[in-house]
Amino acid sequence: MELSSAPVQRLKRTIERFAISPDDRWVVYLADNDVDDVFELYSVPIEGGASVKLNGPLVAGGAIDHYSFRISPDGGTVVYVADQETVTVREIYAVPIAGGPAVKLNGPMVTAGDVQAFRFIPNEGAVVFMADAEINGIYELYRATLDGQSTQRLTPGFAQGVGVWPPNELDKAFILTPDGRILIYRANPEFGFELFSLDLSWGVTTKISGPMQPLGHVEAWEVSSNSTGVVYRADQEQDDVFEGYATVVTGGPVTKVNPPLVAGGDVTTIKFGPDGERIIYVADQKVDGVLNRYTVARPGEPPRAINEDITASPSMGAVLLPDSRFRLYVQGDIFATALRRAENMILVEEIPQGAISKFLISPNGRYAVYLADRDTLGVKELYSLDLHATTLGAAAAPP
Q: Which of 267, 144, 158 is nearest to 200 (CA)?
């Protein structure tokens, strides 16, 4: 079915990146609105209106880190990283989402020090961030309140050559359990890169990965939705042979998830299912180079293959609405698929001479916010679509 579009509200232009607040009220975006090629941080009501610049004045040559900004869980604060005061010194700031003074959250930084990543602590009005604030190149973890009044180091004070080591993706350098009690991070205090948990209430640090061969390291990890378990991928037993392991966030027995792998085989990804107990992993377990997905009911039980060869990855980009009734995706137009009826509906028709390059769904599923050169070819602008204001129309052929 084709959906006739509700009035589409243009929000702002020349957008680099954007995010929707958890309360569905605001869109925060990065754009060079004021000075060409100087990208700054702005907020605008999701229904349209005047935008407000959020960051403080940038020093000449300073910039907002394009991928750093995040909105607090309550929707009231934006936190970002920028070399706002000194070029090449990246610091962390918090600002009200509706506008106001931006406050610095980190303490004094060593020359060439940087804040590299951060996460909000649920229900605390605080963040954890990673920085080489005291010794250049040695990363530690810090906690700071969003009002900028309190900053404390969480990790023990690493020596030269030791520290918190992020994986390839800085966004996953450390993970908080969903309840905000435990911090999971990777460091190299002895051999290889091992996994540690830090209880934020008691300040107790525990190594939770198993004994590591000298060249081994933990490559990736995930915490369960019930805040009790950790799974990780590591070449813990044999150099460059990556396998999957499971343990608890407070430390305890470590269980290998996969059976013996074929020569050349590896576990390539591992994660928890939505229930926080079932484990899902991908591996070329039986034939080198042929990937299959497996599920394990709980650590220690045998895995079960849940599909055949998935070596050719499916296309991505579809978003499931919170009520699980529709799936939205872009293929020229923005489509919605009614999951129970397998019908395809056009929400935003194909844009003449332009393209939709990104879209997000607001947390409660009411709005689709998308980036497109809808009005001027080559000029990416931001639009919101009220999904509650759409009406059913004629059928559209599936893509």
A: 144
What's the CA gap between 53 and 80, in Å, rounded? 13
1 Cβ partners below 8 Å, 6+ apart?
Answer: 338, 343, 344, 345, 392, 393, 394, 395, 396
Tokens of residue 339, six digits: 């999951």
Q: Rounded CA gap, 330 and 372, in Å?
A: 12
Reduced to 3 states (helix: H, G, I; strand: E, B; else coil), residue 288 is coil
CATH topology of domain 18-316: Methanol Dehydrogenase; Chain A (2.140.10)
DSSP 210-271: ----TT-BEEEEEE-TTSSEEEEEE--SSTT--EEEEEETT----EE-S-PPPTT--EEEEE
From the list 99, 46, 41, the residue with the least C-alpha distance to 70 is: 41
Distance CA 220, CA 231 (A): 9
Which pTM value belongs to this model? 0.79
Residue 347 near residue 370, CB atoms below 8 Å: no
Tens of pLDDT, residue by residue over 40-72, are 999 999 988 889 999 999 999 999 988 889 999
d(CA 39, CA 201): 38
